[in-house]
Amino acid sequence: MRQLILISLLLLSSLAFAHRLVLEDPSEVQSLEEGDFNLGAVLFRLPGADNKKLLKHPAYNSLVTDLEKDLEALKTQDSKLGVGMNYVHRLFDIRWLKSPAAKFELVGVVNRMDRTVFNPGTCGEVRLIYRLSYAKTQNQTLIQSRLPMTLNAVFKLPATPLCQAVAKQWSSQQKPPLKSWVTLANLKSLEVNLQAVRWPSTIRGDMGGHAEYFLRVYRLKNNSFVPTAMENTPDVARLQNDSALRAELLAWISTPENIKALDAGTLNIPEKFLTTKSSSFALHGMNRLANRPFDQIFKKDDFKNLKLTDLENIYGPSSFRRRLNDLSCAGCHQGRTIAGFHFLGKDPESTIFANSIFSSQSPHMMQEQKRRQVYFQNIFQGKTPDSSRPFSERDPQTPGPMNAHCGLPGSEYQAWTCAAGLKCVAVVNPETSKEIGECLPEQPVAGNPCEPGTITQTAHSHKDQMKASARTACAGHQVCQTTKVGFPGGMCSGGCENLRPGEACGAIAILQGFNDCLARNRPFGECLAQNTRPAGLQACDDNTSCRADYICNKTQSGKGVCIPPYFLFQLRVDGHPKPI
């Protein structure tokens, strides 16, 4: 079956036409939003409403109340946490969800017919992605920005024979007939991804900073959004404290049928084992124990006697457990993502260049598009599709490009190879297991890591520590931008002269001056203009992704360069004007 998929991928790549499964052009989504698909019209029968007006609706109010309660709970656990630049640990300002200056802006429509396997009796899902944004006057200057929060409104696509009719409706018209699908009757869930906390690198220098993201799934019930079980995301505390329940889950996972489903990425764990609230933690993704819920429940030895032969993605106990983590919400949102997100939307042309994202999709989502195209094309042609999918981190069937995750020598992941001219290098790993590296060139280029290290893992993310290893060399004309000033894993960079293939000229914020400027409540654009310098960086685009923990930023010339995500104003909770 895997060979058939590869053949289909090759055939698909030769076609001039590909189905548009992601609608993200800013002018197109703006037109949809100005029509029937703004958040107020879709969910609350309040077309075009700002967040203050939405608050009058009981369903929206219930959502805000639940998130506010969870944010307040964080403050009771951390005396240094609060809203604003005066705090060293910075909390999301819940008032943005109540402000007349803020709204949820439609940034994308995504076809997920490939998720039929998780939604029996349907033809999969269509997803409307919204970003929290604002327009606020500060010191007589209009400031406009998005914020690190998305709402994903998930709608079930109604079942038809083979689902071919739905595929043809989607692709045979200039625009998909969303109005017939996007209804409250078809609403499956509302998914929230919210940066709740950020610590700057000046406070967490060993890690290059720290951020925490609320992950929530809500169902609409009696005009209220109620937290519901999260797909394949275990209730860690309950399972740790209930040995019988833990044993029951282990037995369920260990059946031959479920081992095959796990390998295929189509496992669907029963709700009795699942949590209703989860968080993910950055930086350094899956190297953090807090992002590996199944590592906190099971040991690798729990899987050592399972028959794990003749599988595509699982090679032994370690990859078995990593695959479980990969299917969880936290694991997925910290495996080859951009600042904890998989889709952020393209910015309007009016966005200030240093706050603008070049590529809206995470490396995982970029990789996924080919598989989704093959799946959709089979449905479109009336054929039976293959629902299997590789790890969200990478597909072992093709050699990894630069920055892809790869298997270090002696690990189970030898199928995770690198393309010609690249080698698998340990950059950041858990102290107890060096298994996954990054594909890097033989000779260093701009953007490559230069401060490798190991993480001492704890289930409490605040207690994780990075132990630095010996620095690795940058090219002769480049220097190592260090972790402690916000470059996780270090980053090789030089001037904009003598740029080599794969490099481009961008700008780096002078961190201390920039943060001091924001603390004085000066506009973002002013602070940026006064506190940046040109730098040679890794070039990136919609086909070339950045390293883990870096994002493709649009430069003043319109090109893409890789920088740490929290250098973008729209991806940090702090430094913005007051919401109200």
Describe this entry's structure for a reader:
The structure is a single chain. The protein has 15 helices and 22 strands. Mean pLDDT is 93; it is low at 3-16. Strands 1, 2, 3, 4, 5, 6, 7, 8, 9 and 10 form a 10-stranded mixed β-sheet that branches. The longest helix has 20 residues, at 58-77. The radius of gyration is 23 Å and the shape is globular. The chain is α+β, with helices and mostly antiparallel strands.
Q: What's the helix and strand layout?
A:
Layout lengths: L1 H12 L8 E2 L2 H12 L1 H5 L7 H4 L3 H20 L3 E2 L6 E3 L10 E11 L9 E17 L2 E18 L5 H8 L6 H4 L5 E13 L10 E12 L2 E4 L8 H6 L1 H11 L2 H9 L12 E6 L34 H11 L1 H5 L29 H18 L24 E3 L14 E4 L2 E3 L5 E6 L11 E4 L8 E4 L10 E3 L9 E3 L9 E7 L1 H9 L4 H7 L1 E9 L10 E4 L5 E4 L17
Parallel strand pairs: 2-3, 13-15
Antiparallel strand pairs: 1-4, 3-7, 4-5, 5-6, 6-7, 7-8, 8-9, 8-10, 11-14, 12-14, 15-16, 17-18, 19-20, 20-22, 21-22
Helix pairs in contact: 1-13, 6-13, 14-15
For the biggest sheet, the summary is:
10 strands, mixed
**Helix content estimate:** 10-25%
In round numbers, the mean pLDDT is 93
Task: Please compute the radius of gyration using only Cα atoms.
Answer: 23 Å
Strand content: 15-25%
Secondary structural class: alpha+beta
pLDDT < 50 stretches: 3-16
Report how far the terminal alpha carbons are from each other.
Answer: 56 Å
Q: What's the count of strands?
A: 22
Please give the count of helices. Answer: 15
- Gross morphology is globular
